[in-house]
Amino acid sequence: MKTRLFTPGPVMVPEKVMLKMAEPIIHHRTPEYESLFADVNVKLKKFFMTEGEVFTLASSGTGAMEAAVVNILAKGDKAVAVRGGKFGERWYEICKAYGVETIAIDVEWGRAVTPEQIKKVLDGNPGVKAVFTTQSETSTGVLTDLKAIGEVIKKYDVALVTDAVSGLGAHELLPDKWGIDMVVSGSQKTIMLPPGLGFICVLKDTWSRIERSNLPKYYWDLKKYKKSIEKNQNPFTPPVTLLVGLNESLDIILAEGIENMWARQALVAKAMRAGIKALGLNLFPKDPSNVLTTISIPEGIDGGALVKTLKKNGIFPAGGQDQLKGKIIRIGHIGYLDEYDVFAALSGLEMSLKAIGYSFSSGESLKAAQQVMSE
Amino acid sequence: MKTRLFTPGPVMVPEKVMLKMAEPIIHHRTPEYESLFADVNVKLKKFFMTEGEVFTLASSGTGAMEAAVVNILAKGDKAVAVRGGKFGERWYEICKAYGVETIAIDVEWGRAVTPEQIKKVLDGNPGVKAVFTTQSETSTGVLTDLKAIGEVIKKYDVALVTDAVSGLGAHELLPDKWGIDMVVSGSQKTIMLPPGLGFICVLKDTWSRIERSNLPKYYWDLKKYKKSIEKNQNPFTPPVTLLVGLNESLDIILAEGIENMWARQALVAKAMRAGIKALGLNLFPKDPSNVLTTISIPEGIDGGALVKTLKKNGIFPAGGQDQLKGKIIRIGHIGYLDEYDVFAALSGLEMSLKAIGYSFSSGESLKAAQQVMSE
Fold it and tell me: Phi then psi for A171, rounded to 5 degrees?
């Protein structure tokens, strides 16, 4: 049986991309690499839907988050971090690590922060310089309405930063139009690459903030990356093979088209949710993201056993983290997956639920998913 | 014609390793990955010749250098950075970026710092907490005698940190015995992997320094890595495919044996140096490293043209950087290269020198190299 990764990242990688990366390595201080990197950067801007710049870091997504914090803030600045899950907490922790006075907006896990909540905090805390948010919170499966939040923040002299590590490509996101100063992402999600690259998209107007930033940094110093990118180079040795793969992955994505990708991801998520509901199961998040479907484990069912059985059946989901351990199961549907993989996931889920004693009428989830697909 | 990378990194990667990395990706929160990572960590300790711990970061070598600085120092500490090339300068710049009072030991490019120089600075500057050095300075081809420096530093309450990004595996280095608190390295050198992994080896006794360190950090916080490695995990998503490749590369290295690898690298470097001298060319460094051979461009020869011609002949060297631009040529001989590749490099060099009008007797460098190999 094949192993199918239905985790919200790392995701499966197209064979074509893996084989391209297996070709003889090229050196990065060459016209060949510079031409590749120039192409990649044009494609990245299309993928991020920006006229700004997208910088590629040799790091995981967390590294790119840290880069956002240390480049957007100066010593003594106040910041706001939305904490509605594990990755929202990470923003708070990074800010605190740099001694930033950080106001947390604590949101119940499973809910999204509202624009009103952000407005209230900004009105009550003059001097806030940046608000850190999470587009799709991978730990809960919640989507944040960044367009609406952008509308609010435009009225203040405050930067809006979002962690779109898993969400980018699965949901509409328009940094320039919505006023998102920095969008952070990573390679191992909708970009369909192995982990190892972090991305940070910076709007043109955001550079004045970066210029005044004086938090200590060297490797994360975006001014270095800006200077290098103008010569189609990186300030430090880039992970060349991942960049070769990125070029391939972006070709696949752009051939599909970003809007089509959003629509496909929405369809897959809708079909998955319909299937889940048809089995009498409940979705955990009130505001579900299209990156993953988070299911509340029903009373009397052992969440750990369900994850284990699913894995034995070749369907590889993620369980709950921290306070949600054993209470939810997360089925990711980004990366090298398509509409038909929904049927694999739901079939595996049905067989696993049956095996551990949850009662329902077999095939119902598939019927419901087909219904959505055919609409 | 094949392109042969004779750069001091990124280096050529064994086909076997590339193909292993092209296999379907595995998820990192699995027993399968944890077993792989446990194996890798045992092998890394053998490669680093340490009873301490080796941490793997998703970063370039510079990221691992920054991790060393922010974990070994506390606010207000003084540090010493040896500046005898581009990478020595990097230590200084990173320390300064974090507001560390940093005393530079400026060494003429092409020379190694002496233990006496370090002793003098330490005697003259009480309160220094760490000395940052470069084992093999890639920009000049110079080797530093870390054993002798370790002997000096043992007499002070000072940490010794070295950048062994390119040198590790090409020269004897015994962190535990020589008292090197932190050894920094990267994947794209003697480890024969693509770039994307940074390594940092930490001695057991060094943890008391890390505990008192309070420079701001999150992604580079080694305490997080230590906590995770105990469960065979990483605090942040690791570049899974590179770790799969690392496991393969380390198998190749350990099958050869570290001491045998040092001996082979020494032989290759000796043969290369003999060949260069036989052509009437001069070595640039007074204390040459086995990682690369740095040749002074003779009077009347255009260094840029030589590099260009070599590349056209399929031999890919590196030129000089900064103050050495056009004055030297650097031929790396680490990575997936062996004794016979020396003959390719020297043949390409002879043909290129001939083409640009340098006069010598053809074949002499090959004869000299063969002589060394046969001894």
Answer: -140, 150
